[in-house]
Amino acid sequence: MPGAQERVLRGRIAATQNTKKITRAMELIAATRVVKAVQAANEARPYSEHITTVISDLSGAGVATNHPLLVRPERTEAVAVIVLSSDRGLAGAYNSSVIRAAEREVLAAKDAGQRYVLITIGRKAEGYFRFRGYDVHAAYGGFTERPSYAHARDIAAEVTSLFGETVQEVRLAYTRFISMGTQEVVVRRFLPLETGATDHVDSEAAAATAQFEFEPSSAAVLEALLPRYIESRLFAALLDAAASELSARQRAMKSATDNAQELIIKLSRKMNQARQEAITTEIMEIIGGAEALAADQGDDEDLLLDYLSSDPFQPLTRGRQPSRTGPSA
Amino acid sequence: MTLQVELVSPERVAYSGEAKMVIARTTTGDIAFLDGHVPFIGVLQTWPVRVLHEDGNEDVIAVHQGFVEVSAHDAETPTRVTILSDVCELADTIDVERAKRAKDRAVHMLAAQPDDEDAKAALARAEVRLEVAGVPKSGNSHP
To answer: Which of A52, A73, A164, A180 has its CA at 20 to 30 Å from residue B35's CA atom?
Structure first.
């Protein structure tokens, strides 16, 4: 039947247009949220910077070395891997790349004969690892787009309680937000705390910090400070991951919208072509029919011809009318 | 010269400004900072921090634990007091009704279990909030 292909294409164009509307809306939503997420990450920076300063002040005073959270145990029997993914998909390669990095860590630990403890943040990672039969120790989710400090505190408390007895090292896989256009999956050692922050204190700064007064004592300050430091590092990672997630989603949705637009153009061309073809075929059929009839002109046996030669549109209706109205009248 | 005061919570810089004197309570007792204080790091209690300005005005800020750091200073840089706390609340951001409810709840819990540390902490937080918000104290006083 002519026009069937055209109708199918018209339906596909309408469907693509709907998809485009959705991806466009998601792109715009992600774009506004990513600004907020970046702002939140920037606002959280002073706190973690100050805490890092205080820790280096403490190490300048020569205390920060033998706390259990800072000391690497002699034997690493188990490794905890924390993976920061998102709750929802449609964010391009965001989830798959960070999950792959975490899975590599887990497999590396297995190869080294160590046990692993998996902590997932975001439903995507939880689903991935559970489906593949990994032992997920704890799973958090529902806040990856907008993490609060309370979430960081909960997770940090769980991780800190594991560290020492159950696991001797904690690694954190997340997506670092560098700029709107660049994010990078990184795996960092989370515990024991890297003393790198304290290494590059030059002698001048050390001399300046040596005269610090502590109340109640430097050890007590450190004791109270380290949990906060862990929380703030985790919080910073959560905020970075949130900004990365949103910016990945924005980019994925932008290219989805572009692709939809491209597809609409392609389908429209195809549809126009199909329509033109249908019209041409129809015309050809009419001309063909008319020519066939014209060739037959003069044949007295064909009653239609008399009508055609006088008025081409009238005869059909006139010829049919009696039979249509007849039985009902 | 004046003090540079900054209150920093994990989520943002809650307060920043200049002051003549800052009074806080560490785990060993009250301490006041003036310009030229030696570098100092202290662990704070749940207690209002008072920021006294040059013109005699005063800001009271609810601080629920945390740290106070006084950084090293010299002729060019003024003395800087930085307070790091999980929760820093200025008077106008405190939900008085919520604090009152939290206090009632904590009092009830303490009546049932006098040794409940969480309830004690909750009571202390609620009382500090109410004090900062300028709600007059009822019968039971601070420790």
So the answer is: A52
Q: Whose CA is closest to A106, among A98, A97, A115?
A: A115
ipTM: 0.76
Number of domains in chain A: 1
Is residue A27 a contact partner of residue A254, using CB atoms and an 8 Å limit? yes
Let me know if residue A139 belongs to a domain: yes
Does residue A55 sit within a domain? Answer: yes
A73's CB contacts (< 8 A; 6+ apart) are A164, A168, A192
Mean pLDDT in runs of 10 for chain B (143 residues)? 85 86 88 87 87 85 85 76 84 77 82 77 79 62 45
Chain A touched by B67 (CB under 8 Å): yes
How big is the A-B interface in CB pairs under 8 Å?
Answer: 88
Contact between chains at A232 and B42 (C-beta distance less than 8 A): no
DSSP string, A212-261: -EEES-HHHHHHHHHHHHHHHHHHHHHHHHHHHHHHHHHHHHHHHHHHHH
Looking at the fold, whether B45 and B107 belong to one and the same domain comes out as no
Note whether A220 contacts B27, CB cutoff 8 Å. Answer: yes
Distance CA A256, CA A254 (A): 5
> Would you tell me the crossing angle of helices A4-60 and A218-296 to the nearest 10 degrees?
170
**What is the CA angle A247-A253-A256, rounded to 5?**
145
Structural domain for A39, as ranges:
22-195+215-260
Q: Is residue B139 part of a domain?
A: no
CATH of the domain at A221: 3.40.1380.10
Nearest to A44 among B11, B38, B43 (CB): B11
The verdict on B21 and B56 lying in the same domain is yes
For an interface test with A, the pick among B6, B8, B118 (most A C-beta atoms closer than 10 Å) comes out as B8
